[in-house]
Design goal:
Elements (H helix, E strand, L loop, with lengths): L3 H11 L5 H20 L7 E4 L5 E4 L7 E6 L3 H10 L5 E8 L6 E7 L7 E5 L2 E2 L3 H12 L4 E10 H7 L8 E7 L1 E2 L5 E2 L5 H6 L5
Parallel strand pairs: 3-4, 3-6, 6-8, 7-8, 8-9
Antiparallel strand pairs: 1-2, 4-5, 10-11
């Protein structure tokens, strides 16, 4: 799935010198790219359109748009790229904070549309330990989603293995896969704190 353009975008988000506007733009581009890739797996339906020449053409748009769900706040730029790929999609938002001692996530905010029988794409810029993503997957499953995809810019192998316990491997998308997590649960080599790099350092 990697392309030279996608590699350029990953280099941009990894580089410590990249300013916030360029960092967010690159993440949105990655989200758009991954969204188009995910769309290839979604169900399409034949649609006939008569052109101005009076002739019919057949095309295959999506049968149903997915619901896009992002984990706040780091996932927002990636989510904006997914919105470009699925402009008619409904959206949901999950606020999740990680305890830096236990590395366990805690859901602090939830705003989801009706998910019954729908396909959901859950996105977060980093798939590190997998805790927040797995919590989000369980929440979406409990609300009746028929199919779930996970989308991240950079993933760590341990986190991917954890998510695989809930989501098929071919439903997990990322632009780059790193091998390790450090003792703080950060992806190595990773890119640092995606939320801070997108929006500035938070104090609490």
């Amino acid at each position: 799935m990697a392309t030279p353009r996608l590699e350029e975008l990953v280099i941009t988000i990894r580089a410590p010198s990249t300013p916030s506007p360029a960092f967010r733009f690159a993440l949105a581009e990655i989200g758009r790219f991954l969204g188009y890739e995910i769309s290839k797996q979604l169900t399409s339906t034949p649609t006939r359109i008569k052109t101005s020449l009076g002739k019919e053409a057949i095309h295959y748009p999506l049968e149903q748009n997915p619901v896009l769900i992002t984990i706040l706040r780091a996932g927002i730029p990636l989510y904006q790229g997914l919105q470009d790929a699925f402009p008619n999609a409904e959206s949901g938002f999950i606020g999740s904070m990680r305890d830096e001692t236990t590395l366990q996530p805690k859901t602090t905010y939830l705003a989801l549309p009706n998910l019954e029988g729908k396909t959901a794409i859950i996105c977060d810029t980093m798939l590190a330990t997998g805790g927040s993503i797995c919590d989000a997957v369980c929440t979406v499953q409990d609300r009746g989603a028929r199919e779930i995809y996970v989308c991240s810019a950079i993933a760590a192998a341990p986190g991917v293995r954890k998510v695989e316990g809930l989501v098929p491997r071919d439903h997990i998308y990322f632009a780059a896969l790193d091998d390790e997590l450090n003792d703080k649960g950060y992806i190595v080599p990773g890119l640092g704190d995606a939320g801070d790099r997108s929006f500035g350092k938070k104090i609490d």
